[in-house]
Amino acid sequence: MVDVTVGHGGHSFLFGRTLGRGGTLLGLDCDSLSLERARQRLAGLDCRVILIKSNFSEVAERLAEAGVGEVDFLLADLGFCSAQLADAEMGLSFRNEDMPLDMRIDESLETTAADIVNGYDEKALADLIYEYGEDRASRRIARFIVRRRQQERITTTGQLVETVCGALKRPGAKRKATKHPAARTFQALRIAVNHELENLKALLSAGPGLLKKEGSLAVISFHSLEDRLVKWDFKQRQQDGIYRVLTKKPIVADREEVLANRRARSAKLRIAQKN
User: Fold this and answer.
1) Distance between CA atoms of 254 and 45, rounded to whole angstroms?
2) Phi, psi at residue 26, to the nearest 5°?
3) How distant is the alpha carbon of residue 34 from its chain centre?
4) What does the pLDDT look like over 119-176, one tens digit per residue?
5) Fold (topology level) of 100-194
6) Most buried residue among 8, 65, 84, 158 by CB atoms closer than 10 A?
7) What's the whole-model pTM score?
8) What residues are paired with 218 via a beta bridge?
9) What are phi and psi of 80, to 5 degrees?
10) Residue 90 above 80 pLDDT?
């Protein structure tokens, strides 16, 4: 199996226990710290474990380099682990004012969220927040960002949160069930910085060529832009006779799981099997 977003190895550990000595588990991640944690977690498995630092958009190249042919199972979990959200260097969270406005999961990427916030013109900022954040207040938010950066460069998550909340005239999330007013802007910037949708398209495009007959591709997405791409890719390939979609509707967490893990409320799992 191939876990293209191995993270700290949670999913891989569960699947790896079923592979046995004759199986191979290959994990990809562009975050060096996550790879090291995964290596420690998966060390006791009986199966062969190969961990590679790479973005999942390059999965075909990495498999070829590792001498792995067609695979039985591809898994992609497009979410972020709690450690990444808490990482003071990444600046992914809108709940910590002290984080630098970075958002790069892969440290080799050149453009940071601060570069975009301080470098894009007002229209480009508004278009990005609307397209990737699906925020209908994108033009007002962009206007407030440009006004703020004329006074000072926006370099921290706290500055950006304050600016967005000011644009929306809200001090922050009023209660736990309310989406934070800066959530959509942060999502838009993170997607842009890490080229998330382009990478997902590359993975979906590579899927049919990597799977054995009756091999499966499973994708866990966390927002509508991702889920829409997966849904339509699976649907089109089913119409072309390449896949059989095993999930007519996405599998979602039940109430008990959401209570235990609040982030699971946004997760949607879709699975397709190669004909």
Assistant:
1) 30
2) -115, 125
3) 14
4) 999 999 999 999 999 999 999 999 999 999 999 999 999 999 999 999 988 655 444 4
5) DNA polymerase; domain 1 (1.10.150)
6) 8
7) 0.86
8) 75, 271
9) -115, 145
10) no
